[in-house]
Amino acid sequence: MNNYEAVVGLEIHIQIDTAAKAFCSCPTTFGDRQNLNICPVCTGQPGALPSLNKEFMEKALRFSLALNCDVNKDSTFDRKNYFYPDLTKGYQITQFFRPIGENGFVMVKDSNGEPKKIRLERIHMEEDTGKSFHKEGKTLLNYNRAGVPLCEVVSYPDIRTGDEAVQYLKKIYNIAVKYLRICDGNMEEGSLRCDANVSIRKKGETILNEKTEIKNVNSFSFIQKAIDYEIERQIKLVEDGGEVEPETRLWNPKLKQTEVMRKKSGRNDYRYFNEPDLAPLRISEDKIVTSKNSLPELPDVKEERVRKIYDLNDELMELMISYPEVCDYFEQAVKKDISLSRKIAGWISGELLRLHDKENIKSAPVSPEMLFELVSMVENKRINQAQGKEVLEIMFSSCRTASEIVENDSRFAQIDSSEIEAVIDDIIASNQNQYQAYKNGKTALFGFFMGQVMKKSGGQADPETVKSILVSKLN
Amino acid sequence: MVIPSREDIYKNIDEYNQVLNATLQIVPENELEHSDKGKLKGLICGVKDNIAVKGLKLTNASLILRNYKAVYDATVIKRLKNEGVVFNCKINMDEFAMGVANIYSAYGPVLNPWDTERVPGGSSGGSAVVAAAGMASFTLGSDTGGSVRQPASLCGVYGYKPTYGVLSRYGVTSFASSLDQVGLLSRTPKIMIDIMDVMSGKDEKDSTSIDSPGFFHKDTPVKGKKIGIIKQYLESMKPNVALTFEKTKNYFIENGAEIIELDFPEFDKVIPVYQVISTAEASSNLARFDGIRYSERAEAENVFETYSKSRGKYFGEEVKRRIILGTYVLSRKCFDSFYLKASKIRTIIYNRFNSFFENVDFVLTPASSDIAFKFEEKPDPVSLYFEDLYTIPANLAKLPAIVFPADVHHHMPLGMQLMAPRLKDNELLNFVCTIEKEFYNFEKMVEEVEHE
Amino acid sequence: MSLTIKEVSEIYKLAAISADANEMEKMKAHIDALIPILDEMEKVDTEGVIPFFELSESLETVDFEPALSESSKDIIDAFTQKEDDYLVVKKVVDKGE
User: Fold this and answer.
1) Is B186 a catalytic residue?
2) B353 vs C contacts (CB less than 8 Å)
3) I need a surface site. Which of B13, B198, B441, C1 has the fewest CB within 10 A?
């Protein structure tokens, strides 16, 4: 088994979230009544012509730049000719000869944890097709999706494992959905669709063998399983003296295996040629520079920077990189005291995001500054951890600051050590049996005393302080 | 009267339409709107059946669209409507604008009004006939390789194809997108200037459209003009055409124009380049007529058979010939040697004509290979492709060109063509107005046809 | 050069047009007659010439205001076969790419 390596390339179709379709002004709203968002252009009525949506072009340009692509200063729109009922014109408008972006890359980590570059061959703009529903003996077509903008990102076959494939897909997903916000990321509704080309070869070889294409693996966990399964299947097939045949396969999540959908019979002749209704798209150097400068900090750069400045474990790093807005919030919160970075990150991940949606942290009623104040109060032992959580909940419901809440609520009144000592003395006096037992070595009773003290103090006392006084009193 | 009145128009329709088979749909007079507003109020326009007028038929003279009605207005139609033009008929044509004689309509051929044994030219043969017979004030056609100008020559009317992009193609059924342009046909070029003023200009819905170069009337004398004539054409003309060409050239010389001979070494590549580019684009543009969404659907076992049977059954012979050739030249095997090669030669031809216009104001050429031929003389399909020899270069080079009546032979009209530099459309139209006044015009042509 | 009937049949398939043997024969003759005319293009030296479709000025983009089309109802009305505003075709059974 170890003599083989897998050669995997992914083709990802990403629906670009624009108000209007790629080549006409129909809305792109998902879930509207069937064939409501259609017009002469996207249904291919005689005489209808495409115009290019500016928003689509600009988002595709940003995407290309974010994926480290060279932007073609004159990219072409081309026609891919084939017949299918979900395709309204008998051709799809795409970019074949010169796509908007070429020669990009994204970084993943290989099995040793070392950084690895997955190169992108191209990113091109095209239009989506309509949707079909199959019924007994007939197919129903809804063209609301016909003409919705897509970017297709095609990788080189640099991927070697299912894990790398998932990292790659996640990276692209994060850039499109979380960083650039050019895609709504709804994989169930098909906003991001992935096909994987898989082949194997003996380690050390550079040839490309016959490959299979796994179509429409539209979930992160399926893609990993499907690719790993397919690699194993091909290795086993070849080991047993068989040959990999070019075919399209589908992932069956129930049986956890890939299955043949159809054999590929020769190459299709799509008769690509320049779309004569759309001139070449010329993008000026100025426009490219402006677009590049408007990009947010991207995940690879962010990861390196955040790791360097703050003391975060892998799990917290993952949170910050996957949710750039959470990271922004975090960085704002730790501004005044960077030494609290892990604590504050912990509060965000453990508590804040329990109370508020991480996709939309900006709208949380608790600002980063307010969270900082709260965490500082806990760290300074003004209130204890449990009280802190309670205060945070009150902050959410009342929009007040931690100090306002704590100072105006007797439950959070500060208890000094002399008060705690008095409480402990009281408890020892009224629980002599247990006290004696403890003295005689039943140290497990420490918890009992601890509980009694906390109870008596109404949870206000800082457990650490109670513990240290209790230890000295009991011994 | 050169521009017929509303009353005359319907009288002419009653008298000629059935015989000439020029229309596919007539709006009855009592249903035709009266418009009293707009720059073009009172004008009644006939529209080639490949241009969308909402609610009216849009068959493209094809069986595959026999029950199809336009669901929107073409941009040119919308702009005319806004200025008071009303539309009284959808006009017969060669199926999907593919043809040079109007014999390829699924609804029967159109006849030439000056001799019904002869063809009217094509593909806008019906539009030339409706204009000539006064069944509308003017008509719209489409011109991919001469489809407006060649029938204008054979029917004795003016036929003008603007610079590519000056008129929006939105709503005009695409034949070959990079060559197609809406054209005007009428008995006088004067109204074309007013119509173009209204119709021209950038349209967001057609990204290949461009700003209007401006249209207005101005005196444009012949004196001092430099008129180019193409050496290779002189050698190729048939006798009738040569005579008329000579006569026209002499008119220019006598009126103080300078004649300059031009060399067009690629002239014999015009037909292959056109055949490759136009059929390639057509094969893709006509893919939408598939029996699936709106066109006629043939009985079939499965959906893929629906495609081939619908297209096999409802497309006419010539349309299939072009689609098959176009599919072939785009196929992987032929793409470089045919399609790409043709596109490169097109660049050379484009540059050639632009260099001509560094030295001349207009280029004078024949418009058709001869006067209209008789139906019984119908040449084979391949020979018919050579009928557009003189008109195609204007499409390949995206230049404005107009055909004007210039002569009568054997009681049949014959036109000549003038080409102008890109965007010099207004100069061209005004120049032809001078020719109309001084040299030859529709009335003179009618007189000669009747009394020659 | 001339085409074989098999090649002609392949082109018909690509173009999605049905035809009987007789029609294909006629089409073959037509294309065979045209090919020598098209081959004339070989004689032109196009070294270094860019294809015409690359000459044009840049495509201008449009700032679309998203809006429902006035035509959507008419488009549905024109559907060849429909059911509850869906277009209906014979069941699509994949026949391979």
Assistant:
1) no
2) none
3) C1
